[in-house]
């Protein structure tokens, strides 16, 4: 028997299949304009590609902001609980999860059983989220993934605005003044790091620290966070799937 | 199904706005107030009507922001917005206003509001501790009494004060009994209905009729309890809501909690239990007794405010609470800073989960607040 976890975020929809021991398949697609359709399609594709029949699935659990729109779920669980369960499944010694997604950034503190003891989320503002980096990359006319490659080893330009719209104007002014794209990219990553640091400090950071969400694909940001938090921040190929993994684990236990 | 009398309780708003118009036209004086520190008894002893003024709706905030900073507590902006737009019948029919020096935002807003109507300001001490604080607050009681005597050309006698104290104590006892019904597990009344009943009492023009309605409501609820009718099932997480005041229009956090499956059993805020906990001593000199009662309000504008922690601890035990939610209005510095103390107290001393929600009256963050509340409740259930 299998369980399926689906995490429909603001940017990407992620799904995993769990057999009770291992994550046997994972798949990611852009959420696009319809979280309902992309979630449905993702589910159908992942079971088809892996040759799994509907009867073999004991439970489908959804998470992420798009979970509300999926009609075929057996259960809906918040991304906070799912990230906790997902982290515990990957490595039971993880005590802090820093999750930076498309529209949310959050820090989750876990006990030794993977239960959430405390969490904090960004307020109603895109500062420090993936969206922030996306808008800025667009202003720099590069792909969001390139931010980290070009910023490597470069002295950072200070970006003082936390507000996404003002920060965009700020980098346009900086470019007009002759600042390099590289130094601005480094400054932007610093800015996201410092926002995550503030959240993490409020919750209290305990080792081991795991970095999840789409923004965790940025290796430079991971290093910046490690330095700022004075502890090693880890991520893995499953970082972006943490919510979906947690959902699948919850579903299997049901 | 809701208790039948809730319809009558909800109808009070309309009824009272008509009643206040009639009373005003019949020559009755009206004292409009904002805060749980305001001694309603003195207004009643002046043979006036005392009412709470509107300040829980998002609607007039846009107008208020023409004169007040955007980054200010929504309660202050809403109160001021209602005042300048004349959309609150209670404000409209108030002959005088009673203000109080609680937080900085309110204090300075009152300076602007005082241009609209005659206003008396009671100066609160910064602390409730020590003889000097009580002496000062006693004097403030006398000044307010003298203000009303002059303004309304009446004499506020000791007997009148005692009579008003007894009436207000009866109202407090009735509201307290109502609140305490939810100490039962499972709770017979939703937190939403409890909030409505407690909040609407502030607009009561006829205190006697208001007490009678609450007493009838208690009988109805007790009757339902005997029949096994409750608002929630036994497994619903029982939540104590503390922090800033709420009312209709600013019930977002409470509504989301209950829509997500929680049973909000105790409202430890000044629109809930806070003002009901202590009665006015009926044996003492009335001014002294009033000063003592009102100064004992465990509000975050006092330093220190350990009384709030004591009250939270008592309610947590009496109401078999599973988690504490602290609501802070945006830019409410006193409650916001105090939240850190409350969090540590709830987690370390009471060993309960704690969630702070900082928000305003708008719906712009409902999605995010839902996620936080649901995750918090998932944590309690696991």
List descriptors.
heterodimer, A: 254 residues, alpha/beta, Nucleotidyltransferase, domain 5, five-stranded mixed sheet, 8 helices, 21% strand, B: 382 residues, Rossmann fold, four-stranded parallel sheet, 15 helices, globular, CoA_E_activase_dom (chain A), iron (chain A)
Task: Specify the structural class of chain B.
Answer: alpha/beta
Q: Based on helices, strands and strand pairing, what is the structural class of chain A?
A: alpha/beta
**Average predicted confidence as pLDDT of chain B:** 96
- Output the CATH class name of chain A: Alpha Beta
In the CATH hierarchy, the third-tier topology of chain A is known as Nucleotidyltransferase, domain 5
Specify the number of helices of chain A.
8
Helix content of chain B: 40-55%
Q: What integer is the average pLDDT of chain A? A: 95
Number of strands of chain A: 10
Uncertain segments of chain B are none
End-to-end separation of chain B in angstroms reads 29 Å
Roughly how many Å apart are the termini of chain A?
12 Å
Widest sheet, order of strands of chain B: 2-1-3-4
Describe the structure.
The complex is a heterodimer of chains A (about 250) and B (about 375). By secondary structure, chain A is of the alpha/beta class. Chain A has a single domain (about 1-125, about 195-255), classed as Nucleotidyltransferase, domain 5 (2-Layer Sandwich), CATH 3.30.420. Chain A has helices at about 35-50, 80-90, 130-140, 145-150, 165-175, 180-205, 220-230, 240-254, and strands spanning about 1-10, 10-20, 25-30, 55-65, 75, 95-100, 105-110, 115-120, 210, 235. In chain A, the strands form two sheets. In chain A, strands 3-2-1-4-5 form a five-stranded mixed beta sheet. A five-stranded mixed beta sheet of chain A has the order 8-7-6-9-10. In chain A, a hairpin with a 5-residue loop joins strand 7 and strand 8. In chain A, helix 2 (about 80-90) crosses helix 8 (about 240-255) and helix 3 runs parallel beside helix 5. The radius of gyration of chain A is 18 Å and the shape is globular. The relative contact order of chain A is 0.20. By secondary structure, chain B is of the alpha/beta class. Chain B has a domain at about 5-160: 3-Layer(aba) Sandwich (Rossmann fold), CATH 3.40.50. Chain B has 15 helices and eight strands. Chain B has helices spanning about 5-25, 40-45, 60-65, 75-85, 90-95, 105-115, 130-150, 160-180, 190-200, 205-225, 250-260, 285-295, 305-320, 335-350, 365-380, and strands at about 30-35, 50, 95-100, 120, 240-245, 265-270, 325-330, 355-360. In chain B, the strands form two sheets. In chain B, strands 2-1-3-4 form a four-stranded parallel beta sheet, sandwiched between helices. In chain B, strand 5 (about 240-245), helix 11 and strand 6 (about 265-270) form a beta-alpha-beta unit. In chain B, helix 1 (about 5-25) packs parallel to helix 9 (about 190-200), helix 1 packs antiparallel against helix 10 and helix 8 (about 160-180) packs parallel to helix 10. The longest helix of chain B is centred in the middle third of the chain and has 23 residues, at about 160-180. The model of chain B has no long low-confidence stretch (mean pLDDT about 95). The interface of A and B includes residues 77, 78, 116, 119 and 123 of A.
């Amino acid at each position: 028997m299998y369980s399926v976890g689906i995490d429909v975020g603001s940017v990407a929809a992620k799904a995993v299949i769990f057999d009770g021991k291992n994550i046997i398949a994972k798949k990611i697609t852009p959420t696009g304009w319809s979280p309902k359709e992309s979630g449905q399609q993702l589910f159908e594709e992942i079971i088809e590609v892996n040759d799994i029949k509907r009867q073999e699935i004991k439970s489908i659990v959804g998470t992420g902001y798009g979970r509300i729109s999926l009609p075929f779920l057996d259960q809906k669980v918040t991304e906070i609980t799912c990230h906790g369960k997902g982290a515990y499944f990957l490595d039971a010694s993880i005590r802090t999860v820093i999750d930076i997604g498309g529209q949310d950034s959050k820090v989750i503190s876990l006990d030794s059983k993977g239960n959430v003891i405390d969490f904090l989320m960004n307020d109603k503002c895109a500062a420090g989220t993936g969206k922030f980096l996306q808008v800025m990359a667009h202003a720099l006319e590069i792909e969001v993934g390139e931010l980290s490659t070009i910023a490597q080893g470069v002295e950072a330009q200070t970006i003082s605005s936390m507000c996404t719209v003002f920060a965009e104007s700020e980098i346009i002014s900086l470019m007009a003044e002759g600042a390099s794209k590289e130094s601005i990219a480094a400054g932007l990553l610093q800015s996201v790091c410092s926002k995550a640091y503030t959240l993490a400090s409020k919750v209290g950071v305990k080792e081991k620290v795991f970095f999840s969400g789409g923004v965790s694909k940025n290796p430079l940001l991971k290093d910046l966070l490690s330095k700022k938090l004075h502890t090693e921040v880890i991520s893995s190929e499953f970082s972006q799937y943490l919510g979906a993994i947690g959902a699948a684990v919850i579903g299997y236990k049901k | 199904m809701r208790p039948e009398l809730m319809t009558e309780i909800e109808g009070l708003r309309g009824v009272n706005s008509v009643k206040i118009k009639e009373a005003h036209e019949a020559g009755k004086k009206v004292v409009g107030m904002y805060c749980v520190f305001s001694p309603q008894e003195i207004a009643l002893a002046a043979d006036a009507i005392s009412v709470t003024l509107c300040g829980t709706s998002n609607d007039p905030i846009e107008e208020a922001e023409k004169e007040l900073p955007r980054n200010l507590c929504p309660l202050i902006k809403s109160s001021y917005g209602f005042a300048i737009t004349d959309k609150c019948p209670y404000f409209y029919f108030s002959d005088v206003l009673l203000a109080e020096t609680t937080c900085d935002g309110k204090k300075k807003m009152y300076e602007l509001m005082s241009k609209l109507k005659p206003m008396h300001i009671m100066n609160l001490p910064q602390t409730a501790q020590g003889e000097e604080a009580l002496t000062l607050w006693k004097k403030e009681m006398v000044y307010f009494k003298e203000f009303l005597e002059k303004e309304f050309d009446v004499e506020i006698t000791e007997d009148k004060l005692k009579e008003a104290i007894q009436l207000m104590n009866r109202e407090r006892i009735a509201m307290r009994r109502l609140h305490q019904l939810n100490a039962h597990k499972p709770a017979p009344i939703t937190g939403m209905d409890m909030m409505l009943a407690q909040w609407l009492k502030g607009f009561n023009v006829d205190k006697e009729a208001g007490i009678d309605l609450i007493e009838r409501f208690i009988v109805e609820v007790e009757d339902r309890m005997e029949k096994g009718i409750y608002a929630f099932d036994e497994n619903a997480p029982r939540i104590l809501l503390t922090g800033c005041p709420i009312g209709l229009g600013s019930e977002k956090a409470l509504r989301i909690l209950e829509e997500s499956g929680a049973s909000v059993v105790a409202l430890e805020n000044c629109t809930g239990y806070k003002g009901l906990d202590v009665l006015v001593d009926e044996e003492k000199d009335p001014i002294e007794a009033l000063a003592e009662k009102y100064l004992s309000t465990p509000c975050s504008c006092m330093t220190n405010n350990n009384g709030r922690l004591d009250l939270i601890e008592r309610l947590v035990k009496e109401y078999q609470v599973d988690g504490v939610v602290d609501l802070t209005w945006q830019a409410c510095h006193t409650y916001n800073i105090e939240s850190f103390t409350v969090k540590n107290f709830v987690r370390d001393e009471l060993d309960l989960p704690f969630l702070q929600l900082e928000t305003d009256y708008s719906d712009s963050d409902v999605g995010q607040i839902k996620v936080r509340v649901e995750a918090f409740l998932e944590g309690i259930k696991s």
